[in-house]
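Students often ask what a 'structure token' actually looks like in practice. Rather than answer in the abstract, let us consider DUF6894 domain-containing protein, a protein of 86 residues. Its sequence is given first.
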Amino acid sequence: MTRRRAGMPQFTIIFAGRESERTTVDCADLPAARNQAVQQLGRYLADHPHYAEEGHWRVTVEDDVGRAAATVIVATVTPRQSGQPE
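Now compare that with the structural description of the same chain:
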């Protein structure tokens, strides 16, 4: 999917394990592109609940020349119960 707005930097969002499904977005800057990546991950997890069971996800945001500009890492962890050894 490509969203193109004239004059805005272009970023590519890539989910680890789904590298062939790249999404190109136009955002004002890197923080906006990173926010887009987080929103897309949230939508994907909502639509594919089985994917959420994997426990961790990595989303890379590339700049317009293909360099990794940011990596978003989300992980779920099981809290330790008090009294359990570390």
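One point worth highlighting: The chain has one domain: 10-75. Ask yourself how you might have guessed this from the sequence alone, and why that guess would often be unreliable.
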